[in-house]
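Researcher: Let's walk through a ligand-bound prediction step by step. First, I give you the protein sequence. Second, the SMILES string for zinc ion. Third, you return the three-dimensional complex as structure tokens. Ready?
Model: Ready.
Researcher: Here are steps one and two:
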Amino acid sequence: MSAPPEGLAPDPPELPKDLSIAIVREGRQLVKAAVEFDNAPGRLADLLQTLSCPEHTLLTLHLATTPDQSTAIGHLYLEVTGAGEAADVERRLRMKPYVRKVFIRMGYGGILVDSAFPLVLSDKAQAIILDGQQASEMFARVRELMGSGGAVIVYELGKGYGRPRFVRIIGTRGVEFMDAHPEYALQMLSAMGWGKLTMTAIDREKGTATIVVEDGFECRGQKSTTPHGQFIRGVLAGGASVALGRELECEERRCIAMGDEFCEYFLRPADPPE
Ligand SMILES: [Zn+2]
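Model: Step three, the predicted complex:
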């Protein structure tokens, strides 16, 4: 096992982020309240206070606001006891003058599936949620069937994702911001749960960079004698090429599928100047 490279400090223990696509409470009565309200300091706390009573237990919530902070949409998931409590949740929320819309939905058989749609990322791109292990198996299946051609297909899929994604990120944040904060795009991929991506070295003159991926979804749980992260490699090559306006290639130099502690990718110009 090789030691983590300099610059990759061990992370403190972290709390996982549960996306709660379904809540299961055997034999309990579950209610979801989707609420849109005029946002202002203290409003969310006031709403939660409104729902505070022995008959209601808040299980989880999700809150998002518009960029100007004027409107908030909350999705609240509660366990309630007693008949008529779902109606009571709605009545309590509607009493608030700043609440614009309330939608109430009941669970069934102790299950509440959150079918809120569409899902959107914070940059408003439509999102889908994939089970990371199954996504990894999906790519592995292509490679199993197609051999080395499958690895190329998975790599090109990554490029096909990375290029438009980085075009979008650059379009939103601008070239200057991206140049000042090259780690931003990597953090966005981390935020989507793909793994913990860290830039551990960058040489702007040579156009090279080293990126460490810890617990990457593609390589985690796989066994290989060669570097396995073709999709991520394609994403990084495609994305970095867009970001720098020149073709870069990407090589995976360490890989957890080969027994390394983390995956490490090296970006360099496809045709370095002589
Ligand atoms: Zn790997």
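Researcher: And what stands out?
Model: The domain at 22-113 is CATH 3.30.70.260 (Alpha-Beta Plaits). DSSP finds seven helices and ten strands in the chain.
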